[in-house]
């Protein structure tokens, strides 16, 4: 009998410990992760019908709460929804929230610590709970221009920044969608819209990260800027170094070879300096540099530009992590050095790498939030420019800028040239298997000697001609629009 009682007591203690551990995890250890999960409907339902704060661009709301119906006092409404969907995300009864609606949920719902006194005041006054408004750094005119520069039906992304402050001036992608279709109070319409949008190629609402912050793509030749910085930082190379430039480079331990870029004039020289190799985007010199320096030197420099790090906390927006692979054999290292193989980067990552070069080697924290205001318009948060890391030295950044300027004035990025303005740039063409299609990139800044704006563009699944037409020339249009404001 005593044996049975003892066993029952031990089972009860074990069950109590398991229950206590589960409660502790949910309430303490895992509380943050559970609240951050976009599929956590409890966080949404807790304030679904409240007067949620507005998200503002250029003084006008792009997301706000408007009077609802009998089932809910307030309804979430999005203005110019496709233009801003990649930033605002959606706020849905059934599917949770994404984008700023998720990442700034406490501020928008009025439940952040900074709004404690406002909540107390609302309780005493018997007022409807109201959230804080969030004004963004986005320039509405540049946002609209960038969005329109991506043709309908084309998958692509554009990021426009101020390299000196890290402020995001524009951030767009296509295809896009209308968050109003998912924010509806009609459950049947909400479900039908969600399922229909998830059938559109390039849209996946099950993923909380997409577009400029979430599209992990082969960066192609824009990655050669990493190689260049690593080479100069090693002390083994300088601006006068002579680089091997064969038409193809046999890949060590393999029967394959890496061909030189065929779209420029690489074939006219068997050796090249950095200026020529970057101007014509030659592959073999940079693959040779990587084989000489080794994987660690390239990986370390990539890390200094932000590869392998999550920018989500800095940006206040979900962000995928860009990757430079590890444990590479020599053949894989040579291919990775030209931005192929398993190297993956978001458009935001390439933009931040370019910002660091433009800003004398200093990478600034990416900033999307201009101000956060309480319901009484009191400013409760106003982020200031903040240094994130030193990516390279001022001298190396200056030298790379000079070469990038030649890429536009003399090389294959001439479509970005602006009369009377020195523009620094680099193109990239990442091959997608044997399809004949590529991810086509441009990244650069202007003016080269005093950067005011940086632009990164990627167009996915395009042929070489289409990619050239949609990248450098479109960057020129954005540069001119910003500089002429």
UniProtKB/TrEMBL annotation:
Task: Please state every residue range assigned to the domain named Penicillin-binding protein transpeptidase.
Answer: 156-479
Regions annotated as coiled coil: none
| Residue ranges constituting the Penicillin binding protein A dimerisation domain according to the UniProt record | 52-134
SUPFAM superfamilies attached to this UniProt entry: beta-lactamase/transpeptidase-like
Q: Which Gene3D superfamilies match?
A: DD-peptidase/beta-lactamase superfamily, Penicillin-binding protein 2a (Domain 2)
A Pfam match: PBP_dimer_2
Please provide, in alphabetical order, the Gene Ontology terms of the cellular component aspect for this entry.
Answer: plasma membrane
User: GO biological process: any one?
Assistant: cell wall organization
Q: Name one GO molecular function term.
A: peptidoglycan L,D-transpeptidase activity
- What name does this protein carry? Penicillin-binding protein 2
Q: Which organism is it from?
A: Arthrobacter terricola
Its lineage opens with: Bacteria, Bacillati, Actinomycetota, Actinomycetes, Micrococcales
């Amino acid at each position: 009998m005593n044996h049975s009682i003892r066993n029952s007591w031990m089972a009860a203690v074990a069950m109590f410990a398991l229950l206590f551990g589960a409660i502790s995890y949910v309430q303490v250890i895992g509380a943050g992760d559970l609240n951050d999960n976009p599929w956590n409907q409890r966080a949404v339902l807790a304030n679904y019908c409240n007067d949620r704060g507005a998200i503002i661009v250029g003084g006008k709301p792009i997301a706000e709460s408007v009077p609802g119906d009998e089932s809910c006092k307030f309804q979430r409404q999005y203005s110019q929804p496709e233009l801003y969907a990649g930033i605002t995300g959606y706020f849905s009864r059934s599917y949770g929230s994404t984008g700023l609606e998720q990442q700034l949920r406490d501020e928008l719902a009025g439940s952040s610590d900074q709004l404690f006194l406002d909540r107390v005041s609302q309780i005493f006054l018997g007022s409807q709970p109201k959230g804080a408004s969030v004004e963004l750094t986005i320039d509405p005119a540049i946002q609209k221009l960038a969005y329109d520069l991506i043709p309908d039906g084309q998958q692509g992304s554009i990021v426009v920044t101020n390299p000196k402050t890290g402020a995001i001036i524009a951030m767009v992608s296509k295809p896009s969608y209308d968050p109003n279709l998912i924010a509806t109070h009609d459950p049947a319409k909400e479900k039908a819209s969600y399922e229909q949008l998830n059938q559109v190629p390039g849209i996946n609402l099950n993923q909380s990260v997409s577009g400029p912050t979430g599209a992990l793509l082969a960066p192609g030749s824009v990655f050669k800027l990493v190689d260049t910085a690593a080479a100069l930082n090693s002390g083994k190379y300088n601006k006068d170094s002579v680089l091997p430039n064969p038409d193809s480079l046999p890949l060590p331990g393999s029967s394959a070879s890496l061909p030189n870029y065929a779209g420029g004039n690489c074939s006219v020289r068997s050796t090249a300096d950095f200026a020529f190799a970057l101007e014509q985007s030659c592959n073999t010199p940079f693959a040779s540099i990587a084989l000489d320096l080794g994987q660690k030197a390239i990986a370390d420099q990539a890390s200094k530009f932000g590869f392998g790090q999550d920018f989500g906390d800095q940006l206040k927006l979900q962000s995928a992590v860009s990757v430079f692979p590890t444990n590479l054999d020599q053949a894989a290292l040579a291919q990775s050095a030209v931005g192929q193989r398993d190297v993956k980067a978001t458009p935001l990552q390439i933009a931040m790498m370019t910002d660091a070069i433009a800003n004398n080697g200093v990478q600034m924290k990416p900033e999307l939030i201009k101000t956060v205001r309480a319901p009484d318009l009191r400013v409760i948060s106003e982020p200031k420019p903040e240094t994130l890391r030193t990516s390279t030295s001022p001298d190396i950044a200056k030298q790379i800028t000079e070469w990038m300027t030649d890429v536009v004035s003399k090389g294959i990025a001439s479509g970005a040239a602006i009369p009377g303005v020195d523009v620094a740039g680099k193109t990239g063409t990442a091959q997608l298997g044997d399809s004949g299609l590529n991810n086509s990139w441009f990244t650069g800044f202007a003016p080269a000697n005093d950067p005011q704006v940086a632009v990164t563009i990627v167009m996915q699944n395009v042929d070489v001609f289409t990619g050239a037409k949609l990248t450098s020339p479109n960057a020129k249009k954005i540069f001119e629009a910003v500089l002429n404001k």
